[in-house]
Design brief:
Layout (H helix, E strand, L loop, with lengths): L1 E7 L1 E2 L2 E2 L1 H16 L5 E9 L3 H6 L7 E6 L8 H15 L3 E5 L2 H14 L3 E11 L2 E8 L4 E6 L6 E5 L20 E4 L31 E5 L9 H11 L2 E4 L1 H5 L20 E5 L5 H4 L7 E6 L6 H4 L2 E4 L2 H13 L1
Parallel strand pairs: 1-4, 1-6, 4-5, 5-11, 6-10, 7-10, 12-13, 12-14, 14-15, 15-16
Antiparallel strand pairs: 2-3, 7-8, 8-9
Helix pairs in contact: 3-4, 5-9
This protein binds flavin-adenine dinucleotide.
Flavin-adenine dinucleotide binds next to helix 6, helix 7, strand 15 and helix 9.
Length: about 325
């Protein structure tokens, strides 16, 4: 029997959207790929998160393993790795899924090293045969995809690129599988020597949703000419239910915060719709958007490299095109 264990990431009692994608990926693996009988469990770590555990019972896992303790209030990689490794070893879980978020990227290699298992990162699709995992992952800044295969059937640690898998849907009353059981984990004997502690979380003002989680991203580059001009992108993003991102040139100019930078040294994103305004499409920028479902580019230079990857290209002055789009959407 294959056991898939999904790490559900929460902050201040709120579940990250990409954790539902990880649950969806786990469910898909066990239900559709013909692995025979399997178990899908999920693990939640934090403090005072019993209510959250109740709300995630309906997303297809058989068990929600809950580690609830004041010492786990804020993310601590040593304590989280300790709890995860202990549970995985106890259960002999074959596959451990985490989202490739900042937390998942920090936790997954530590966990794989602790377990002595393989680590498959930034996966965009998963398959399984004879208990061994096969995955597609992006390499060379997203310019190529590689097919990789685990060689051992136990403790395969996997990070999933956000927005690459459909999120798990809640199971309705009377449907199978039944809502998960919540199992409290014994966390009374945690290591008392965490090597680092979180002192504080400083939120960036004005950043509503993480660009890597958004379904629609409207991004601006050097062609925006100044911070004040991003107002039109905010309006467009709002109308489309999205958020505003930026190229590194726009971030370096101080027009947008670093948190919304898209690309090699920024966030990798996979939204349903990406609209690039006044962005040339450097290799480093494209590294962050190759898995966007639809790319629209607005640029006055018909030779701009962004048009080579765009599904739809609008050659024109963004200060005319964007307001025209806004008035069409309003009208
Ligand atoms: P530009 O390349 O200057 O392009 C501006 C575009 O705007 C042009 O194509 C122009 O035609 C168009 N334009 C101007 N005015 C208008 C108008 N009125 N209407 C329509 N179009 C207009 N970059 C990133 O974005 N993300 C990264 O994570 C990143 N990481 C990097 C890491 C390294 C190690 C290095 C070396 C570079 C990195 N860069 C990154 C920088 C990258 O190489 C480019 O310099 C940067 O992406 C350029 O940003 P841009 O497209 O906004 O600006």
């Amino acid at each position: 029997m294959v056991e898939v264990l999904v790490f559900l990431e929460q902050r201040e009692g709120r579940l990250k959207g990409s954790s539902l994608e990880a649950l969806g990926a786990g469910r898909q693996l066990l239900e559709e790929v013909g692995t025979g009988p399997g178990r899908l469990n999920a693990i939640l770590i934090g403090n005072n998160i019993k209510d959250l555990a109740e709300t995630v019972r309906c997303y297809g896992a058989q068990k929600i393993l809950l580690a609830d303790h004041p010492a786990l209030e804020r993310y601590n990689n040593r304590l989280y790795t300790y709890i995860l490794a202990q549970e995985v070893q106890k259960r002999g879980a074959a596959i451990i899924l985490l989202s490739a978020t900042a937390m998942g990227r920090d936790l997954a290699p530590r966990l794989a090293a602790r377990l002595g298992g393989p680590l498959l990162t930034e996966c965009t699709s998963l398959d399984i045969s004879d208990g061994l995992l096969e995955a597609t992952r992006l390499v060379y800044a997203g310019r190529l995809s590689a097919r990789v295969k685990s060689t051992v059937p136990r403790f395969q640690v996997v990070t999933l690129r956000p927005n690459a898998f459909p999120p798990a849907q809640a199971v309705g009353a009377g449907f199978k599988p039944a809502p998960a059981k919540v199992e409290m984990l014994d966390v009374s004997t945690l290591p008392t020597d965490p090597l680092t502690v979180f002192r504080d979380i400083i939120y960036t003002k004005g950043v509503k949703t993480d660009v890597s989680e958004a379904r629609v991203v409207v991004a601006g580059g050097r062609g925006m000419r100044g911070a004040e001009n991003f107002r039109i992108l905010e309006e467009l993003a709002e109308l489309l239910g999205g958020v505003v991102g930026a190229s590194r040139a726009a971030v370096d100019a101080g027009w947008r915060p670093q948190e919304v930078q898209v690309g090699l040294t920024g966030k990798t994103i996979s939204p349903e719709l990406y609209i690039a305004c006044g962005i040339s499409g450097s290799a480093q920028h494209l590294a962050g958007i190759v898995t966007a479902r639809h790319i629209v580019a607005i640029n006055k230079d018909p030779e701009a490299p962004i048009f080579r990857v765009a599904d739809l290209g609008l050659v024109g002055d963004l200060f005319e095109v964007v307001p025209a789009l806004i008035s069409r959407l309003k009208g």
